[in-house]
């Protein structure tokens, strides 16, 4: 059994943010697995998605019932083999799983930031991660890998720190959020901020905006699935009755499933963090930095790329990955692209373990050979 330990790294200097403000006494919660090679050439940074955390693989104790969120992919002898690689995963700033976020204490006031926390960007998250990687003494990562929002962070690494990464693997992601994506995020935040317990973000641990956060999660969860997967799993099955009850309580199995997902999410995630992180994804738009020219945005890139999409992903469809590939090719970047046939929708990057894992494993092997040569 792979046992991992949560660790903390506090930035020694304030972190300057895109919004113009600075964060002081920033803490980053992270976990590592495997052993860093003497020449520090085997380090891989894993980026988590919106609701993820640093616990990417293994267990914190032998009695833990549930391993890290990508444990099927990462570990001894697995696709990302921790007998060969040193794997790092950190919780993003703005999060609620150990890194500095809205519920952290503002050192200037001694009170929780709540909605006084500065608005952050994906690039800000990566700036903080770069401080962590420097702290670990790693000059160049073998790879940065991430799905969904994790893929956005991976691309920021390639653009902002081109000398610091050998290869990038962005999975089921996009170079910018569409208006539809932004609309889903807006409705989710409206649900949270319309909850009577939200109190402009100044809620207590005993009176959290539970209904609003659960509703936001239910809405988002629908976007992670495909119509095919939902139809196959639920169809029009009724939950607790043989016929319609002609009322507005749960009739359908899919309604019960979404309610369960919302309830579970409230148990582990913070409502204010949800607002800040979704806003960070809204602002993510690589092309906008270069007058709408995505290829120009990728000009600094020196890393090789493996870009992966999934056929049934309608949140970040394959067309979005193709835009990234074309922009990279214009810069003569070494890029490999694959669309994986899957019925799982956006969540396929967590579920298509064998196909995706094999692809990542082989790509990393080839990159190590190139580096060694």
Instruction: Tell me the total number of β-strands.
Output: 12
Q: Ends: how far apart?
A: 34 Å
Count of helical stretches: 11
- The H-level CATH homologous superfamily of the largest domain, spelled out, is Alpha/Beta hydrolase fold, catalytic domain
Uncertain runs: none
Number of domains: 2
The CATH topology name of the largest domain reads Rossmann fold
Strand order of the largest sheet: 1-4-8-5-9-10-11-12
Rg for CA atoms: 21 Å
- Series of H and E elements: EEEEEEEEHEHEHHHHHHEHEHH
Shape: globular
Mean pLDDT across residues: 96
- CATH architectural type of the largest domain: 3-Layer(aba) Sandwich
Helix content: 25-40%
Q: How would you classify the helix and strand content by structural class?
A: alpha/beta
Q: Strand percentage, roughly? A: 15-25%
Largest sheet: 8 strands, mixed
Would you write up a description of this structure?
The chain is built from 11 helices and 12 strands. It is an alpha/beta fold and 373 residues long. The chain is globular. The longest helix is centred in the C-terminal third of the chain and has 20 residues, at 353-372. The model has no long low-confidence stretch (mean pLDDT 96). α1 (122-135) crosses α2, α3 packs antiparallel against α7 (271-283) and α4 packs across α6. The relative contact order is 0.13.
């Amino acid at each position: 059994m792979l046992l991992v330990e949560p660790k903390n790294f506090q930035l020694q200097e304030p972190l300057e943010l895109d919004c113009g403000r600075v964060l002081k006494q920033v803490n980053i919660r992270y976990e590592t697995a495997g052993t860093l090679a003497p020449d520090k050439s085997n380090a891989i940074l894993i980026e988590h998605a919106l609701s993820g955390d640093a616990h990417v693989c293994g267990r914190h104790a032998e009695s833990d019932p549930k391993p890290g969120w990508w444990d099927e992919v990462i570990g001894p002898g697995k696709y990302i083999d921790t007998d060969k690689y040193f794997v790092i995963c950190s919780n993003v700033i703005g999060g609620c799983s150990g890194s500095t976020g809205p519920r952290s204490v503002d050192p200037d006031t001694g009170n929780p930031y709540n909605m006084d926390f500065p608005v952050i960007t994906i690039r800000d998250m990566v700036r903080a991660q770069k401080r962590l990687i420097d702290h670990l003494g790693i000059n160049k990562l073998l790879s940065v890998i991430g799905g969904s929002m994790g893929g956005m962070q991976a691309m920021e690494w390639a653009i902002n720190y081109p000398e610091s990464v050998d290869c990038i693997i962005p999975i089921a992601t996009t170079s910018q959020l569409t208006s539809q994506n932004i609309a889903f995020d807006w409705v989710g935040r409206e649900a949270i901020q319309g909850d009577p317990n939200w109190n402009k973000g100044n809620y207590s641990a005993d009176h959290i905006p539970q209904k609003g956060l659960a509703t936001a999660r239910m809405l988002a969860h629908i976007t992670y699935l495909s119509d095919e997967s939902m139809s196959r799993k639920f169809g029009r099955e009724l939950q607790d009755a043989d016929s319609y009850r002609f009322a507005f309580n749960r009739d359908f199995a899919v309604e019960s499933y979404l309610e369960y997902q919302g309830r579970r999410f409230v148990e582990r995630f913070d409502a204010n963090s949800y607002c800040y992180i979704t806003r960070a994804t809204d602002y993510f738009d690589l092309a906008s930095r270069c007058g709408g020219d995505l290829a120009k945005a990728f000009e600094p890139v020196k890393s090789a790329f493996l870009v992966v999409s999934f056929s049934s992903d309608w949140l970040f469809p394959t067309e979005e990955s193709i835009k990234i590939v074309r922009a990279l090719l214009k810069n003569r970047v070494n890029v490999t692209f694959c669309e994986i046939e899957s019925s799982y929708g956006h969540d396929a990057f967590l579920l298509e373990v064998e196909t995706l894992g094999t692809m990542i494993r082989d790509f990393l092997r080839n990159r190590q050979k190139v580096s060694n040569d």
